[in-house]
Amino acid sequence: MEVINALGRRKSAVARVFVSEGSGKITINKKDLTEYFPSSIMQYVVKQPLNKLGVAEKYDVKVNLVGGGFTGQSQALRLAIARALVKINPEDKSALRSEGFMTRDPRSVERKKPGRPKARRRFQFSKR
Questions:
Q1: According to the model, what pLDDT value does residue 1 have?
Q2: pLDDT score, position 105
Q3: Structure pTM?
Q4: Average confidence (pLDDT) over 86-105
């Protein structure tokens, strides 16, 4: 099997994923999954699509992750892995979609407006 690539985004994080047949090793920016995401919750989020289809030990995943924080990165990676798995086997799409792994979360940080300290926060109002 050749290498299947896919892209996942969340907030300002971008995950480029390269999936090939192997033993279930996940490498992120040349580090192991447990080293890159020490939190067990983040590791669980990343592995969700693989565990849903029961193919966690079947594919090796090589990842290039940039931007964002750890939550955005883990969710971008989840989307990228789900997209790659659908490229490998299109019949899996409905199972992954029902769990919400195929949906790109469009929410991102609102821009800062001029004359305000943040996007919506206003400076303190003084009547006199």
A1: 65
A2: 92
A3: 0.89
A4: 91
Strands 13-21 and 59-66: antiparallel
Average pLDDT score, the chain: 92
Q: Domain 4-90 has what CATH class?
A: alpha beta
Q: Quickly list H helices, 23-105.
A: 33-36, 40-53, 70-88, 93-99
Question: Would you say residue 22 has pLDDT above 80?
Answer: yes
Query: 72-109 b/e with 16+ CB inside 10 Å = b?
Result: bbbbbbbbbbbbbbbebeeebbebbeeeebbeeeeeee
Is the pLDDT at 112 greater than 90? The verdict is yes
- CA-nearest of 120, 20, 23 to 62 is 20
**Which residues are CB-neighbours of 69 under 8 A, at least 6 positions away?**
11, 13
Distance CA 53, CA 66 (A): 27
Interior CA angle at 9 toward 23 and 53, to 5°?
35
Question: What CA–CA distances, in Å, run from 106 to 21, 53, 117?
Answer: 31, 25, 24
